[in-house]
Amino acid sequence: MPTKQELSACSWISPSNVGPEEPRSFHNVIALLKVFARHSLRQEGRWLHTLICCLGYDLHVSVSNAVIQLYARCHLVLEAKATFDATPFPNQYTWNHLLVAYGQNGLAAEAHRVFQRLPARNVVSWNALIAAYVKNGHSLHALHVFSCMHTEGYCPDNVTFLAALDACATFAAFSENKPNSPSVDYEHSWCANVYTKKEGVQKVRYIHMAINSTGLERDVSVINALINAYGKYGAVHDAKSLFDTLQYPNFVTWTAMLAASTHSGDGEFALLLFRRMTLEGIAPTNITFACVLDASSSIGALSAGKIIHTTILHTDYIGDSLVENALLSMYGECRCMHIAEFIFTNMEFPNAVSWNSMIVTYSWNGYVKDALKFYDLMQWNGVEPDPITYVAVIHACAGLRALEEGCKLHTTVIMTGCEHRLAVASSLVSMYGNCMLVHDALGVFASVKYHDIVLWNSMLGALVLNENYKEALNLFSQMNSVGLQPDGITFCSILEVCAGTLSVKEGETVHLYVDLHGYAQHPMVGTALLDMYAKCGIISKARGVFDTLVHRSVVTWTAMVSCFAQNGAGSEALVLLQDMKNAGIELDILTFISIINACSYSGLVEEGAHYSVAMNRDYGLRGTLDFFLSIIDLLGRSGRLDEVQFMVHLVPFVEDGICWECFLASSRVHRDIDHGYQAACHCFEVDPEKASPFVALENLCVETMTFN
C-alpha cells in the first residue's frame, strides 16, 4: 500500500475540492498516478483516471503516459491501449509505454507490431522489445533484436546488456533440457538442436566484448549478469576471471559466482567460495544457503551440508521455505531419508515445492511406494500437483512397474494438458519402457511434435532396458542424423549397450568418442565407462577410469566397489571402502549393498554381516528391498538357511515375494528340501498364480534325490 508520505503529497485531489475555477497542476496528478502504478492499485487508478478526464487533464500527453504506465502495471492492457488511442498527440514516450504494456503482459507479438509502427526509435524502444521477448520466454528473438540494434547503429546501455544477458541465461536453462524442467516448450526444444552450449558461450562473450567497448565493464550489475550467464553455460573459467577483477564483490556477485560454480558441477569450489564469503563478513541470505546446499548435494558432500544446516539453525532462515526446500533436496539427494522426513514433518507450511521434493526424494531413492502415498497425501491436503509432481510420480510407477497406476496418471496428464510437456513425455516413455511396453513408449515418443535430447535419451533408455540393442543403436544413429549432440546420458545408454552385449571393442570405441566430446571427466559417464569394463571383466581398465576421474561422487566410488564385487575381488572391495571413508565420502545404501555383495561373492560372511549392522547403527540408513536381498544372498550362499528364514520374516517388503524366492534358490543350492518347501509355500501365499516357485521346488526334489 502507498505510504502516508506518498499520499499526502497529492492529498489535494478529491471530489470535494475539484472546481473549474481552481487551476490544478497536472504534475501532482502524474505523481499520484506513479504511486498507484508502483502499488498496482487498480480500483484507485481507474477512479483517478475518471477524475482526470473530468478535469480535462487527459489532454496532456504526460498525464496520458502516466495513465498507460499505471494500466500496464495493473495488467489492464485494453485500458492502456484505449488511453493510447485517446491521446491526441502521442510522443515517443507514449509509444514506448504502450510497447512496454504489451511486453509486460505476455503479448510479445503485439509489442513487436507496436515497435514496427514506431514513428521514431530510441534505446528505450529497443530495450522494451528485448525485455518483452525475454519476459515471454522467446530468448532467441530477444538476442536477434539485440543484434539488429547493434547493426542499426544504436548504442546499448546497461539495461540493454542486462536484458540480453538475461536472454542468454534463460535460453541456457532450456537448451540444457534437464529432466526436472517440465516447462520446456517446443520452440526452445527445437532451437536447442541448433544452438549449442558452445555457441551460447560465444554469444555471451560477444556481449561481453560489446560491454567492454561501451565502458560498462565496471558496472557491478552488468558483471553480475555476465557471471550468471557464463555460469548457465558452464563456462565457469570465464565467470571466475570476471569475479577476480572485482576488488569488493557485493552479495549478488558472491551468490552469482556460487550459482555458476554449482551449475557447472564444481561443487567443491562453490563450498570454498561460501567459506571465503563468510570469512569476509558477507552475511548469507536464503538464496545463498539454497545455492550452497545445492552445491553440497551435487557432489554428495553430506558432511558439508550438515555443517551448513547447523549454521542455518543459528540464523533467521530456519523457517524460510526456500531454505527448507533446499535442505529437503540436499538430504534427499544424499539419501538421508530420515532427516528429510524429519524436516518435512516439522515444516509449518509445506508448499508444492516441498511436497515435490519429498515425492522426488522417495521416487529417486527407490522408495516408490512412499512416493505414491505422498502423492495421494499431497492431494488430500489440497495441494495441486504440477508437471514436476507428475514427472516424479510417473517415475515412481516406472520403478514399481505399476502399469495400472501409470496409465491412470497418463490419463490425468492428458486431462490437465501436460502430455506434451517434454519432461512429462520423457517420464511416460521411461515408465512404459520399465513396464516392458516398448510399443507404447514409441507411441508417446511419436506423439510429441518436437524432441529434445532428454526425450531421445528416454526412448534410448527404454530400448536398452528391454535389450533391444539393435534398435537402440539405430535410434542413436537417427539422433546423429538430425544434428543432436549426444550428452552424458546418451553415452551412458550406449555404454550400457556395450556392457549388455559384452562388446569390449565397441566399448573402447565409445570410450574414444567420449574423450573426443569432452565427457571423460563427467562423473556419470565415467561411472558408466567403469561399469562397462567391470561387466566385461576388465578390472584393470575399470580401475584406470576410476583413477583418472578428478571428481568422484559416492556413486563413482560405489560403482568401483561393485566392480570388485562382480569379479569376486572382495578383499579389494574392502580396501577401497576404507579409502572411500578416508576420502570423507559419506556411504549410502547402494554402497552398503555393493560391499555386502562383494563379501557374498568372496565368501566373507562375517565382514558382510558386520556392514549390514553398521549401516543402520552407524549411518542411520533404512534398508531397501535390494539391501535385504543382498543379506539373504550373503547368508544363503554360506548355507546359513535358518538365519535366512529368520531374516525373511523380518523383511518389510515380504509382500513382494521375491525374498522367499531367493530363500528358495538358496535352499536349492544347498539341497535343503525342508527349507525349500517352506519357501515355496510362502511364495504361493504371496502369489498363488505364480508357478515358477513350484517348478523350482520340483527341481530341488529331483536334484536332491539324484544326488543322494
UniProtKB/TrEMBL annotation:
Cross-referenced PANTHER family:
DYW DOMAIN-CONTAINING PROTEIN (PTHR47926:SF533), PENTATRICOPEPTIDE REPEAT-CONTAINING PROTEIN (PTHR47926)
In this chain the PPR repeats are located at 91-121, 122-156, 250-284, 351-385, 452-486, 553-587
Give yes or no: UniProt keyword Repeat. yes
GO BP, one annotated term: RNA modification
Q: Which InterPro entries match?
A: PPR_At4g14850-like_plant (IPR046960), PPR_rpt (IPR002885), TPR-like_helical_dom_sf (IPR011990)
Task: Name the keywords, alphabetized.
Answer: Repeat
Q: Which NCBIfam families match?
A: PPR
Identify the domain of life. Answer: Eukaryota
Q: Which GO terms describe its molecular function?
A: RNA binding
Q: What is this protein called?
A: Pentatricopeptide repeat-containing protein
Organism of origin is Ceratopteris richardii
